[in-house]
Amino acid sequence: MAIDALGASIKRREDPRFITGAGNYIDDIKLPSMVHMAILRSPYAHANIRSVDVTAARAMPGVIDVIVGADVPYNPLPMVWPAGGSAGLRNNVNSPRILATDSVKWTGEGVAAVVAETPAQAFDALAAIVVDYEPLPAVVDAEKAVAPGAPQLHENAPNNVVFEWSVGDSAGTEAAIEAAEVVVRQRLVNQRLIPNPMETRGDIGWYNPGTEEYTLWMSSQTPHIQRLLVGIFTMGIPEHKLRCIAPDVGGAFGTKIFCYADYALVLLASKRIGGRPVKWIEGRRENYQSTIHGRDHITYLEIAGKRDGEITGLRVKTLANLGGRLSTIGPGIPTTLYARVLSGCYKIPNVYAEVTGVYTNTTFVDAYRGAGRPEATYVIERAMDLFAREIGMDRAEIRRRNFIAPDAFPYDNPSGLGTASGGAKIYIDSGNYEPALDKALAMVGYDDLDARKVEARLRGKYLGLGLSTYLEVCGVAPSKWIGAVGEGWGAAMWESSNIRVHLTGKVVLTMGTSPQGQGHETTYSQVISHELGVPVDDVIVQHSDTQGTPFGYGSYGSRTSSVGSTAAIKAAGKIREKARRYAAHMLEAAPEDIEIDGANYSVRGSPDKVKTLQEIAFALDLAFDAPVGMEPYLDETAYYDPTNCTWPFGTHIAIVEIDEETGHVDLVRYVAVDDVGNKINPMIVDGQLHGGIAQGVGQALWEGAVYDDQGQLLSGSLLDYALPRAAWLPSFELDETVTPSPVNPIGVKGVGEAGAIASTAAVSNAVVDALGPLGVRHLDMPYTPQTVWRAIQTAKGGQA
Amino acid sequence: MAEHVTLVVNGQRREVDVEPRRLLVEVLREDFDLTGTHVACDTSQCGACTVHMDGQSVKSCTVLAVQADGATVTTIEGLAAGGELHPIQAAFWEKHGLQCGFCTPGMIMSAADLLARVPDPSDQQIRHAIHGNLCRCTGYHNIVAAIREAAVTMHTGSASDSGIVG
Questions:
Q1: Do B45 and A197 touch (CB under 8 A)?
Q2: How far is A85 from chain B (nearest CA, A)?
Q3: Tell me, what's the pLDDT at B160?
Q4: Among A19, A31, A369, which would you mutate to test the B interface (most chain B Cβ atoms within 10 Å of its Cβ)?
Q5: I need a surface site. Which of A443, A663, A684, B44 has the fewest CB within 10 A?
């Protein structure tokens, strides 16, 4: 065998098709007799629907069918993660509709769908549909929505409240705040974001009248879950009658986890028109209204402690804007994935959080890269800076002072990932936070900071440095915890893998996970190459098709490398054991005397008596000489349910320069020291960090979804929503510490979200640090020149 | 009313009857099955549809198919010459300049346009040259590295640099 592929930065096996234009994304698929669907979307954020007249649309050229809400047999889409709590909690649930019937709750809610021979004919016909709306007052801001007199969205949700949820020790935290030498309070806005994978969503539905089976091609992170959610839960299609296939997926960042109306619509439409495949491709502006948004919290924080820097309490009240109806796991994000990890990597004895989920006349909000954890990191990292400033302590020092000590693991955090009602436990199992901090500080030359600030002032710039010492929870599991009633989303969280070693020794690995650009075909091949001793090129990875892959929960939450890989390692172990038994038969030895070295199975003490995995597979696949009781073929399946989550951490540092005349913020350096445990492919890990950092920087500096008071999305296209561009960003400087996760055999933790979780707070802290000498102690994002210029003018006492 | 359009695409003469409102990118994808050219927005902001027309990079969503009558067009499918990856394609692979791959064809075509004009660009020139191409996966870090690498390869002539047609 050549060098061990595990841990090597090998080039990606996916790339040849992508760099030559040979990828196969949803819109690249053409099926015989395929037709096209377009969806009419509400121009009002809040309105009653009096009538929908599709008569003229039906008569338009090329139109085959028009569907309205009344045509949909069962309209609500599933919402599967209500905010819980062991004591039980009321959620005022209003699910999204496949098509609106009596009312619309945000601009962009689907009202009717046209099926036509060409996309252009479908779009043309939308304009011929006449909807009689009764416009209603709208509310888009969570704080305004819960205020007295606000427009009410749903009868079952007084004051637009979805839920009122809390976690932690209320009395203890109250006492800690009362007794504290110093308490710092701040209101923070974590603004709404539009995720923007470069490929929008899309799907093709096909009903086969001959077999009465359905196929759904979908740009999705979760084909197996969607088979349940859109199939039996929504359309009444039995699980074995629906096949879901995700082709190449052009980015997702969480948005393609969920159950969307169009999945059901293309299936319904295909059946209505007798089985011609129906394609729907989302436009970018449409994506901004019909695919989930992220973040959108208003938070009031109180952080309490001593003048020596010891933090004794953290209390947080958050209003989480969840949009007009609840997306698939919307309520779970600002509760479990946010408030339960608010204290980050700090040992804070008293933590209490209250979260109120709120309906507004906006697009639904759900998991976007990091999902709750970037919001939590933003709160705690801003809080640490605010407290340090209040007591005049160095920002690195206060973090050091409060880190959970390396010998304190396993550590139960007081905001209660803790123990689920069923007894399953999640705890922070490992960590060593100071080395990452030290390394990052050394990389940026932290000790010279003051001199550089002085030098920058001579150039008309305010220089600032921001720290973010983040903790992430990922590899989400175990099922007993996440599935416990009131804790998680009531589903399991294991992963699956099947390995077949074919007659020629080639290995086919099928996985339940589904990539969207992470390079799973490469990294899984590396893992299996290591486990079975075969070349990477002899392994092919199949995924994302419910026909032929074992059930899996999909790829999100940075869980594939830890949960998926471990399932594959378990399956490889089963393959090895069967190969060992057959090698023993071939070599006339006892199985316990067979030694395995890579792909070589030899008799202990007789290295010349050896069979390769390929020879074993060949013989066992032919099975001419299989011993009694041994089944032919090397074909093994394994399921893996982790015992805990994984806990990546690290220190990110941003350095910005702000132009005092224009307020323009220039990100001049970005340093990240991450501890994601062991790495399967360091090149891919770095790539994940780069992309995550850019998205987090985007939130701090440029991005924001903006609605006007009537609920019109002002940032409604890529002309108006500032996605980071190449010339705005520096190259990033990365380094690492390595603390292997104890949860899985290869010690990996996951890295898909770390960059996005850490970077927003780092840049925010840098901007506030830069403006600190002017007296600015906090500024809400994004730090556009206008916002920063106003802050400078206000601080200087001028008219902003 | 359809217009007759004749163009050379990736070295091959193509003729098609198109409605005047149809875009070059639609004809490339739908009529010629050249699906490597992607559409990622509706406001000419993303650059995923970048191709070369008569030697210059254009966003094929802002060109009507009838405007391309008589033009020579190169798409991502036509960049590799004789089965050999173009040095920019090779560099994107080598330097992990892509993740989901959706922006990649447009990004590579923009890079090819840059390196045809500026053989040895600075990082800043590279970042400005791809300003009209959005990527949400890579933070551009490895894209810049890949284009820098490709510039060196094309200088030293160790790989084919004849792939840019038209």
A1: no
A2: 35
A3: 44
A4: A19
A5: B44
Q: Is A285 on the interface with B (CB under 8 A)?
A: yes
Structure tokens at B4: 């007759």
Q: Which chain A residues are closer than 8 Å to B143 by Cβ?
A: 726
Q: Do A276 and A309 have their domain in common?
A: no
Number of Cβ within 10 Å of residue B153's Cβ equals 20
Instruction: Tell me if A164 is assigned to some domain.
Output: no
pLDDT at position A585 is 97
Write down the ipTM of this complex.
0.97
Give the domain-ending residue among A240, A274, A290.
A290
Give the model's pLDDT for residue A269. 98
Containing A218, the helix (H) or strand (E) segment is strand A213-218
Q: Tell me whether A118 touches chain B (CB under 8 Å).
A: no
Q: Do A341 and A310 share a domain, yes or no?
A: yes
Average pLDDT of chain A, as a whole number = 96
> CB–CB of B123 and A284 under 8 A?
no
| Residue-wise pLDDT tens digits, A377-436 | 999 999 999 999 999 999 999 999 999 999 999 999 887 676 666 677 788 999 999 999
**Which residue in chain A has the smallest CA separation from B98?**
A15
Rounded CA-CA distance A476/A494 in Å is 9
Minimum CA–CA partner of B84 in chain A = A20
Nearest CA in chain A to B37: A21
Chain B residues within an 8 Å CB radius of A17: 101
A545 and A449 inside one domain: no
Residue in A15, A198, A691 closest to B93 by CB: A15
- Please tell me whether residues A94 and A201 are part of one structural domain: yes
Return the pLDDT at B37.
Answer: 98
In eight-state DSSP terms, residue A240 is G
The CATH number of whichever domain residue A596 belongs to comes to 3.30.365.10
Range of the domain at A585: 494-640
Q: Is A323 helix (H, G, I), strand (E, B) or coil?
A: strand
The minimal CB distance from A731 to the residues B96, B103, B141 is found for: B141
Inside any domain, residue A403: yes
**Chain B CA closest to residue A196:** B136
Q: Which chain A residues are Cβ-neighbours of B48 within 8 angstroms?
A: 198
- Same domain flag for A272 and A411: no
d(CA A599, CA A611): 8
User: Which of A9, A11, A17, A18 should one mutate to test binding to chain B, selecting the residue with the greatest count of B CBs within 10 A?
Assistant: A18
Out of A640, A657, A676, pick the residue that ends a domain. A640
Asked if A749 and A366 touch (Cβ cutoff 8 Å), the reply is: no
- If one compares A235 and B162, the residue with the highest pLDDT of the two is A235
List, for residues B114-144, the tens digit of each pLDDT value: 999 999 999 999 999 999 999 999 999 999 9
Give Cα B36 distance to the centre of its chain. Answer: 9
pLDDT of residue A486: 63
Closest CB to B101: pick one of A250, A725, A732.
A250
Candidate from A236-240, A424-428, A442-446 with smallest mean pLDDT: A424-428
- Would you call A797 exposed, middle or buried from its count of C-beta atoms within 10 A (0-12, 13-18, 19+)? exposed
A250/B40 CB distance under 8 A? yes
Buried b or exposed e, range A212-248, using 16+ CB within 10 angstroms: eebbbbbbbbbbbbbbbbbbbbbbebeeebbbbbbbb
Q: Which of residues 82-111 of B touch A (CB under 8 A)?
A: 85, 89, 92-94, 96, 98-105, 108
Contacts of B122 (CB under 8 A, 6+ apart): none
Average pLDDT of the residues in A608-615:
97
| A348 lies in some domain | yes
Predicted confidence (pLDDT) per residue in A736-778, tens digit: 999 999 999 999 999 999 999 999 999 999 999 999 999 999 9
Average pLDDT estimate for A505-509: 98
A163-167, A210-214, A641-645, range with greatest mean pLDDT: A210-214
Query: Does residue A434 form part of some domain?
Result: yes
Q: Is the pLDDT of residue A495 over 60?
A: yes
Query: What is the total count of domains within chain A?
Result: 3
The domains found in chain B, sorted by start residue, are 3-78 (3.10.20.30), 87-156 (1.10.150.120)
Do A596 and A671 share a domain, yes or no? no
pLDDT for the residue numbered A3: 63
Same-domain status, A247 and A216: yes
Domain shared by A465 and A364, yes or no: yes
